[in-house]
Design goal:
Layout (H helix, E strand, L loop, with lengths): L1 E5 L3 E7 L13 E7 L1 H12 L3 E8 H13 L3 E7 L4 E7 L5 E5 L7 H17 L2 E5 L10 H11 L3 E5 L2 H7 L6 E2 L3 H8 L6 H12 L5 E5 L5 E4 L4 E5 L11 H14 L4 H15 L10 H8 L3 E4 L1
Parallel strand pairs: 1-4, 1-8, 2-6, 4-5, 8-9, 9-10, 10-11
Antiparallel strand pairs: 2-3, 6-7, 11-12, 12-13, 13-14
Length: about 300
């Protein structure tokens, strides 16, 4: 089983409009609602991939109950800790030119007793999991070392863990040496406090991160695919050129596919090809964190993998 952790759950709304104009009343042509927060996007994609998944984290209020209802409709198993705070809402505005503008609420504070309830649940879940993913931001009041603590708990029980976050949460989290991280180019720069202006610098930076004890360093590169650095090898995978519909959730889809690859014991090249094809397929649907099996299969053989 794969367990996904989302401490900052959200209701994600995607608004489709013609043109975004400042200071005017905008008419939404289409609105799509999903159970969101990066980890729930991951859970949804894992489910589509055909693997058993458990979604956990913290939810609260009427919005949290609505998130649970949406997960029930999608037949995704969940076990959340509860908070008195209301689960947040995030909005993504998509215009006719393909631009995406996101409004992300921070998440209301979570009390220490509520966080402790989650930690107790999480401790029990680790033993039942083959792979655990930890994704996204945290609500107000949660210490930045939380992901480092979670990673350490997972590793203590000998399980694999993927950490996908940013900023101080990532800086603290990698101190516990997760199995895999998935920063983008800007996040690599921030982690190492150096410039990454060309390909050689990017590769060298990824190798430096991997040498700290992280088994797989995956650098997501948008339309250029992803770079994977292990102790012995470096691979670059790139998808074919496609016309995206909605790119939101592509990174989460990649994390989901890597988690599936780890659970299925794919080799590095297989994992990378699968992750890129799932991520690219996600961009062809309006729903955040979703893909069609036929799209993924059509893209799979068109992904190019090079060993550097």
């Amino acid at each position: 089983m794969i367990t996904t952790v989302t401490l900052n759950v959200a209701i994600d709304k995607s608004y489709v409009i013609d043109v975004l104009k400042k200071g005017e009343v905008m008419r939404v042509r289409q609105c799509t609602k999903t159970a969101g927060g990066k980890g729930l996007n991951v859970a949804r994609v894992i489910k589509i991939c055909g693997e058993k998944v458990l979604a956990t984290g913290i939810v609260g209020g009427h919005s949290g109950a609505y998130v649970e209802d949406m997960l029930k409709e999608q037949d995704i198993v969940y076990d959340f800790a509860r908070t008195a705070s209301e689960t947040r809402t995030c909005i993504n505005i998509l215009d006719s030119e393909g631009n995406s503008t996101e409004f992300l609420e921070p998440g209301d504070p979570v009390a220490q007793t509520e966080l402790d309830d989650f930690l107790d649940k999480f401790e029990e879940m680790i033993s039942e999991s083959d792979v655990i993913t930890i994704s996204g931001s945290v609500p107000k009041g949660v210490n930045i070392d939380i992901y480092s603590r979670l990673v350490a708990m997972v590793k203590e029980k000998g399980k694999q863990v993927i950490l996908d976050t940013s900023g101080d949460l990532l800086k603290e989290g990698i101190k516990a040496c997760p199995t895999m991280i998935k920063p983008n180019r800007d996040e690599v720069k921030a982690l190492l406090n150096i410039s990454v202006d060309d390909w050689d610098e990017l590769v060298a930076s990824a190798r430096k991160l991997q040498s700290t004890g992280i088994k797989f360093v995956v650098v997501s590169l948008g339309t250029d695919g992803a770079l994977v650095v292990t102790k012995d090898r470096i691979y670059h995978g790139k998808p074919p050129s496609i016309q995206p519909v909605n790119t939101v959730g592509s990174g989460d889809s990649m994390v989901a596919a890597f988690a599936v690859g780890l659970a299925r014991k794919y080799n590095v090249e297989e994992m990378l090809r699968y992750a890129i094809s799932v991520s690219a397929a996600n961009t062809l649907t309006m729903t955040t964190g979703s893909f069609k099996e036929e799209d993924m299969k059509a893209l799979y053989d068109q992904v190019t993998i090079k060993q550097l």
